[in-house]
C-alpha cells in the first residue's frame, strides 16, 4: 500500500458566498468540510484511483479527532492518528462564487513535544513495514520537528519502501539530506531551494539536475496547468495536459503525486506513470472537491496527454 504522512493536517472548511463584505455579518448558503493537508489529499486521490493507502496524521483536540474521523468515514481511507495535546488547526476558505475568488484564513498548527515526536517516530516505524511507497507531505506544525523528514526517510528506506518528498522550505532541505528516491517541488518551491529564478526551460532543467546531484533519482517539477517536467537522470520528459475548464486547482499537485506513487508501487515505466499522474492532476482541477474525481475520468484524459522527450 501507499503510506502518506501529513504532519500538519487541518479541518479544511469552505464557506460559499456571493461577495465578501468586510466588517459585516455574512451568511452562507453552503459550507463544505474535508480533512485537509497534502498527504490526506494524496491518500484521497490514491483511493479514487482504486489503490490501497493509509494516511498517518498528527492530530490534537476535537478538530484533530474530526480530521481522523473524516479520513475514515468521508474518504474511506485507513487513518493512523498520532495524538498530541495541542489542537489541530482549521483552515477556512471564503469562496465568492460569482467571482471565483478565494480568501483563506490559516490557523497555526499544533505544537509537538519531544515525547510526542518520539511516539510519532515509533508509530511510523511500525506502519512503514506494510508500505511499498511512502510520501512525506507538506510542512511541519512545530519547528521542534523541522528535521522530521530527515529522520524518517531512512526508516522508510530501511523497510524497503520507495520514498517521495513533497515539501518546501527547511523541511524540504532537511528531507533532501536523507536522499529520498523522488522529489516533487513546484516552481516556487524549487526556486526557494536552488536560489535562482526558474524563468526559462533551461533554468528548470538546471534545477532538476541540481536535485539529481544530491542523489534524488526521480525528479518531478510540477508546472500547474502546464503539466510537469520529469527526469529520472536518463530520460527527460515534458508532460503536457489537455486544455480544460479549470474549476479548482487546489490539490492537483497532490493528485499528480498520487499518480507517481501508484506508478512506482506497480512498476510502471516513466512515460506510463507520468501520463497517469498528469491525468490525475488534470481531473482534480475539473471539480471543486479535492480528490473527488473518478478513475474513469482519469482514464479518459490519459490518451490526451502529450509527452515530449527532451535532450
Description:
The chain is of the alpha/beta class and 311 residues long. It has 10 helices and 14 strands. It has helices at 38-48, 61-73, 114-127, 148-158, 169-177, 187-194, 201-213, 252-266, 270-285, 295-301; strands at residues 2-6, 10-17, 30-36, 53-60, 78-84, 89-96, 101-106, 133-137, 162-166, 182-183, 218-222, 228-231, 236-240, 306-310. The strands form 2 sheets. Strands 5-4-1-8-9-10-11-12-13-14 form a 10-stranded mixed sheet, with helices on both faces. The protein has a 4-stranded mixed sheet with strand order 3-2-6-7.
Write the layout of secondary structure elements.
Blueprint: E1 2-6, E2 10-17, E3 30-36, H1 38-48, E4 53-60, H2 61-73, E5 78-84, E6 89-96, E7 101-106, H3 114-127, E8 133-137, H4 148-158, E9 162-166, H5 169-177, E10 182-183, H6 187-194, H7 201-213, E11 218-222, E12 228-231, E13 236-240, H8 252-266, H9 270-285, H10 295-301, E14 306-310
Helix pairs in contact: 1-8, 4-5, 8-9, 9-10
Would you summarize the structure shown here?
It contains 10 helices and 14 strands. With 311 residues, the chain is an alpha/beta fold. The protein has a single domain, classed as 3-Layer(aba) Sandwich (UDP-N-acetylmuramoyl-L-alanine:D-glutamate ligase), CATH 3.40.1190.20.
Label this structure with key terms.
311 residues, ten-stranded mixed sheet, UDP-N-acetylmuramoyl-L-alanine:D-glutamate ligase, single chain, 38% helix, globular, alpha/beta, four-stranded mixed sheet
Strands, total number = 14
Mean pLDDT: 95
**What shape does the CA trace take?**
globular
CATH topology: UDP-N-acetylmuramoyl-L-alanine:D-glutamate ligase
Amino acid at each position: 500500500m501507499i503510506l502518506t504522512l501529513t504532519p500538519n493536517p487541518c479541518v479544511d472548511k469552505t464557506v460559499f458566498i456571493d461577495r465578501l463584505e468586510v466588517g459585516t455579518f455574512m451568511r452562507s448558503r453552503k459550507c463544505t468540510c474535508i480533512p485537509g493537508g497534502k498527504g490526506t489529499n494524496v491518500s484521497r486521490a490514491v483511493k479514487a484511483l482504486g489503490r490501497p493507502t493509509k494516511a498517518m496524521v498528527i492530530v490534537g483536540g476535537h478538530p484533530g479527532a474530526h480530521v481522523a474521523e473524516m479520513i475514515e468515514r468521508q474518504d474511506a481511507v485507513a487513518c493512523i492518528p498520532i495524538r498530541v495535546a495541542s489542537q489541530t488547526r482549521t483552515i477556512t476558505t471564503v469562496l465568492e462564487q460569482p467571482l471565483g475568488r478565494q480568501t483563506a484564513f490559516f490557523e497555526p498548527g499544533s505544537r509537538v513535544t519531544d515525547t510526542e515526536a518520539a511516539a510519532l517516530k515509533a508509530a511510523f516505524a511500525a506502519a512503514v513495514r506494510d508500505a511499498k511507497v511512502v510520501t512525506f507531505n507538506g510542512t511541519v506544525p512545530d519547528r521542534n520537528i523541522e528535521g522530521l523528514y530527515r529522520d524518517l526517510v531512512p526508516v522508510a528506506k530501511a523497510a524497503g519502501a520507495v520514498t517521495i518528498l513533497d515539501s518546501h522550505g527547511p523541511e524540504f532541505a532537511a528531507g533532501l539530506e536523507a536522499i529520498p528516491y523522488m522529489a516533487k517541488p513546484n516552481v516556487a518551491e524549487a526556486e526557494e531551494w536552488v536560489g535562482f529564478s526558474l524563468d526559462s526551460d533551461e533554468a528548470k532543467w538546471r534545477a532538476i539536475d541540481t536535485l539529481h546531484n544530491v542523489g534524488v533519482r526521480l525528479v518531478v517539477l510540477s508546472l500547474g496547468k502546464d503539466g510537469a517536467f520529469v527526469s529520472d537522470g536518463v530520460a527527460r520528459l515534458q508532460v503536457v495536459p489537455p486544455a480544460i475548464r479549470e474549476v479548482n486547482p487546489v490539490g492537483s499537485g497532490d493528485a499528480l503525486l498520487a499518480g507517481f506513487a501508484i506508478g512506482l508501487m506497480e512498476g510502471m515505466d516513466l512515460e506510463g506513470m507520468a501520463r497517469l499522474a498528469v491525468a490525475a492532476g488534470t481531473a482534480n482541477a475539473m471539480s471543486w472537491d479535492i480528490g473527488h474525481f473518478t478513475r474513469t475520468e482519469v482514464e479518459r484524459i490519459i490518451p490526451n496527454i502529450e509527452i515530449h522527450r527532451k535532450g
